[in-house]
Structure formats: structure tokens, C-alpha cells
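Example S7 (C-alpha cells).
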């Protein structure tokens, strides 16, 4: 890692958000940090002699003995701390002036400000956690919904690591078989006794993990869902229904929504970023509306799902027109029409105002934003598109959401595939190459959990953390 990450430095960071609050927590870590804090604490001996997991009340004093703040200092001793090092947490009053003064004081006695993720980096470096768990810490902090949190917690508890460890054991075993055969090539006519079934099972469990990536990302980043359609179709009414509040303005006048409106909701734990857009009236020459429509096009290009809302009262022709004209115009403008199959996947057709409309045409979901009829069917459609038709994962299932992890799993799987192909050649199998394949798989898995590390990987990974974690 770069020079910022010396493990022996005394580091400090505010662990709670900046701003006014009842309490703020300053975190410090590094060999000798308790001694250092004792120099500015009103009861230095108590701190110096303290065991771990003890909380001490006192005052932080400045260079001249003046009181800075009344605090509680929690002491952590090696190895029972988050970082694995001697550490402390100072709980002070949560005002920005207090925090600034305290941090400044700590700088004068040898602490430097921690880099993002540096506490977790230390925990990783000192063997307190592997990389999948370190990543889970960030994912827990970033989780937007309870389900996302639960999945990250399961990774923190080691669900991914235990799958990987099992595979590693199997691969190591086969690697040992290979090196034995290479060291003692006694009977060249006999095929080396590899357990290809074991490798196949291992490969499958890695594949299963890879397949969870899409779901993992879904729960982490959520989906962008844009409501689009002709003016007055009821886009804003539908948007408000999802939010269960009157966020977007609804009137009987076409062209009510001029700019887009955005809000996050949770659909069974899937974070949805909903976007209400300006209605599509192509004949308009109102410059505000024209600009609104231009923005809608841009939004559609970046959406995961587009809910096309038709005004059912206009009859079946409205649906045809919407699909033939407005949506085409939009998707062309947004550059998403090149692959119609993809556009089709992303489009959900809603037949709004079903309370006062003729029956919905084939392929359209009848909904009434006014009465709520059909709303749960629409939710179900969004959910099933989001999950790609699959079921939602169990809360404690091993699910990956990091592209880094996915890439490494794929590297391991292709190495195992090459191995299996080679073993298929029987006594002609090139044992030296097979051994290399196994080591390639082990390297990838080692990099995944962090037993084999590359500096650049660590740098990117930990820089995504917030300071203080
Ligand atoms: N009967 C009935 N009226 C509805 C329904 N949904 C919306 N409306 C009415 O249709 C009118 C337009 O609704 P909006 O939600 O503002 O429509 P919009 O698509 O956002 O319109 P613009 O922002 O102008 O593009 C309002 O008078 C709503 O009360 C519905 O399901 N049934
Ligand atoms: Mg509107």
C-alpha cells in the first residue's frame, strides 16, 4: 500500500458524521496510542493501567491544562480490538468545534488523520478479517435497505469465505496429487489419480456464487425505474402511489410535470430509484416542455426499467400509439433502440385509469392509480424483472456484490475448466500443465480472500471506505 498506510502510525478519525449531535466518537489506533491519549487525559494513570474493554470518565486537557471537553474513553487492548491493535474510542460532545479542537490536539501529540478505510485495512493486515469480510464492512455501511444489510452481514459472518475455503481445500488436495505425480513419475502409463468429481463440485459452487452477483448488486445499488408516457396518463399519480405520499404534483392539465422528480423506495428490500418524468407531447412548442422531454430521453437511456404509462381512457389506439410513436421516438433519442430485445426486457406496459377505461390490450397491466387496483401486480412485475425471474435470496445466503470478487471467481472457474478438460485426456494428460491450472485457481481464490494480495487491489478497495472505518 502507499506510504499513508504504515501500520505503526498513530491514526485518528471521527467515526460519527460531522455536525451537531449528542455525542461524537473519535477513534484512534496504533501501538502506544493509549499512552499518548493519557498525556492529554485528566486521569493519565488510570488510562495507562487500564485493561481492554474498560470505559473511563474524565477530561481532555489542552497544552496549558485547560479543559477541552468532558469525555468517556473506551480502551481496547491487543488483540481484542477492531484493528487488532491497541485502540481507543473517545466519546465527546457532538459539536463541530469540540471535534475540531480535539483532533487538532491529538495531531500535536503525534496522531495523523486516518485515510479512508484505514482502520479496516489494519484489521485485514493483522489477520482480524479476510478481504470478503472487509468488503462486507463497507457494504453494511452502504446498505440502503434492510435486506441489503442482512446480505452484507452474512458476508461479514463469513458466508462467502466458507464456500471459498472449502473449494480451496479441494483444489489444494488435487494440487498435491499433481506434485506427487510430477515428483515420482513411477508409472507413466497409469493416469494420475485426480478426483475430477471433487473439482466438478467445487467448480459448481464457485459458479453458484458468480450467479449471485447480479442479485448482490441489485440489493446494493438498486434499480432505476423511470415512468414515461404521454402527458396526463397518470405517471405522477402512479409515482406518488409507490411513495405513498403526494410528492409529485398531479392535475388534470396535460403537461403538469415539467422537470423530473426522483425518490427512493424499497420494494421488499430492493432499493428502487423511481423517476417521474415530463409527459410526451410531441406537438408541443412550449420551450419548458420541450426541454423536459429532452431530459426524459436522457433518463430513459440510463434506466434499468421503463414503466410506459398509457392513458387507458383513450382506448386501444393509445397503447399502439405509445409503443409505435412515443416510445420509439424516446428510445431512438436515447440510443437504446439498437437492441430491441434489450429494450423489450426493460419495458413494462401499464394501462392506467383502468377504473374508467375499456379493457387493457394484451401485454398491458391494467392499473388504476386512483383506486390502487392492479398496483400489486405492477409491483410483482417490477420485482420479477429485477430478480430476472429468480427468487429473492435467503437473508443468510452467500451472495457476492463486488465486481472484483466476481472477476476472480471467473478466473478460478476457467482454470478449473482447463484442468477438467486436461484430466479428460486420461494417461495423456499433461500433468505439469494441470498443476499450473490448479495453482492459477488457487491464486485467484487467494486474491479473493486476501491471502495473496496485490497492492493496487488493496488501494482501490480500501479507498472506497469512509474515513473512520
Ligand atoms: N380515473 C382516474 N384518473 C386518474 C388515474 N390516474 C390519474 N388520474 C387523473 O389523471 C390526471 C393526470 O394525472 P397525472 O398523474 O398528473 O398525470 P401525468 O402523467 O403525471 O401528467 P403530466 O405530468 O401532465 O404528463 C389527474 O387529474 C389524475 O387525477 C386513474 O387511475 N384513474
Ligand atoms: Mg406528471
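Recovered sequence:
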Amino acid at each position: 500500500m502507499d506510504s499513508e498506510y504504515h501500520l505503526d502510525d498513530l491514526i485518528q478519525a471521527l467515526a460519527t458524521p460531522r455536525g451537531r449531535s449528542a455525542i461524537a466518537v473519535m477513534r484512534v489506533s496504533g501501538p502506544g496510542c493509549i499512552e499518548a491519549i493519557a498525556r492529554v487525559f485528566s486521569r493519565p494513570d488510570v488510562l495507562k493501567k487500564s485493561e481492554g474493554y474498560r470505559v473511563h470518565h474524565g477530561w481532555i486537557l489542552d497544552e496549558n491544562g485547560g479543559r477541552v471537553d468532558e469525555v468517556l474513553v473506551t480502551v481496547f487492548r491487543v488483540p481484542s480490538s477492531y484493528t487488532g491493535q491497541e485502540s481507543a474510542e473517545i466519546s465527546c460532545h457532538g459539536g463541530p468545534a469540540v471535534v475540531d479542537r480535539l483532533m487538532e490536539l491529538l495531531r500535536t501529540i503525534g496522531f495523523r488523520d486516518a485515510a479512508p478505510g484505514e482502520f479496516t485495512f489494519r484489521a485485514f493486515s493483522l489477520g482480524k478479517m479476510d478481504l470478503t469480510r472487509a468488503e462486507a464492512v463497507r457494504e453494511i455501511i452502504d446498505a440502503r435497505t434492510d435486506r441489503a444489510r442482512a446480505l452484507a452481514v452474512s458476508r461479514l459472518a463469513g458466508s462467502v469465505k466458507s464456500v471459498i475455503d472449502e473449494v480451496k481445500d479441494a483444489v489444494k488436495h488435487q494440487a498435491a496429487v499433481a506434485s506427487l505425480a510430477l515428483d515420482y513419475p513411477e508409472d507413466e502409463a497409469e493416469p494420475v489419480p485426480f478426483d475430477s468429481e471433487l473439482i466438478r463440485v467445487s467448480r459448481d459452487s464457485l459458479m453458484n456464487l458468480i450467479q449471485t452477483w447480479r442479485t448482490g448488486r441489485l440489493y446494493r445499488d438498486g434499480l432505476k425505474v423511470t415512468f414515461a408516457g404521454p402527458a396526463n396518463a397518470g405517471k405522477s399519480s402512479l409515482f406518488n402511489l409507490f411513495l405513498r405520499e403526494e410528492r409529485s404534483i398531479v392535475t388534470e392539465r396535460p403537461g403538469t410535470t415539467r422537470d423530473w422528480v426522483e425518490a427512493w423506495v424499497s420494494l421488499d428490500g430492493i432499493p428502487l430509484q423511481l423517476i417521474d418524468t415530463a409527459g410526451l407531447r410531441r406537438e408541443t412548442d412550449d420551450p419548458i416542455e420541450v426541454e423536459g422531454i429532452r431530459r426524459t430521453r436522457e433518463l430513459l437511456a440510463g434506466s434499468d426499467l421503463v414503466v410506459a404509462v398509457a392513458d387507458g381512457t383513450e382506448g386501444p389506439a393509445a397503447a399502439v400509439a405509445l409503443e409505435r410513436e412515443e416510445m420509439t421516438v424516446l428510445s431512438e433519442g436515447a440510443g437504446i433502440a439498437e437492441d430491441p430485445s434489450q429494450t423489450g426486457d426493460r419495458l413494462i406496459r401499464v394501462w392506467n385509469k383502468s377504473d374508467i377505461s375499456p379493457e387493457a390490450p394484451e401485454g398491458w397491466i391494467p392499473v388504476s392509480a386512483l383506486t390502487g387496483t392492479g398496483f400489486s401486480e405492477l409491483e410483482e412485475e417490477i420485482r420479477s424483472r429485477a430478480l430476472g425471474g429468480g427468487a429473492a435470496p435467503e437473508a443468510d445466503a452467500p451472495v457476492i456484490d463486488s465486481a472484483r470478487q466476481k472477476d476472480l471467481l471467473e478466473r478460478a472457474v476457467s482454470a478449473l475448466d482447463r484442468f477438467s478438460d486436461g484430466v479428460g485426456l486420461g494417461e495423456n494428460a499433461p500433468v505439469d500443465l494441470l498443476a499450473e491450472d490448479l495453482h492459477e485457481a488457487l491464486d485467484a481464490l487467494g486474491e479473493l480472500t486476501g491471502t495473496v494480495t496485490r497492492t493496487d487491489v488493496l488501494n482501490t478497495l480500501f479507498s472506497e471506505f469512509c474515513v473512520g472505518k
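Notes on this example. The CA atoms of residues 29 and 397 lie 33 Å apart.
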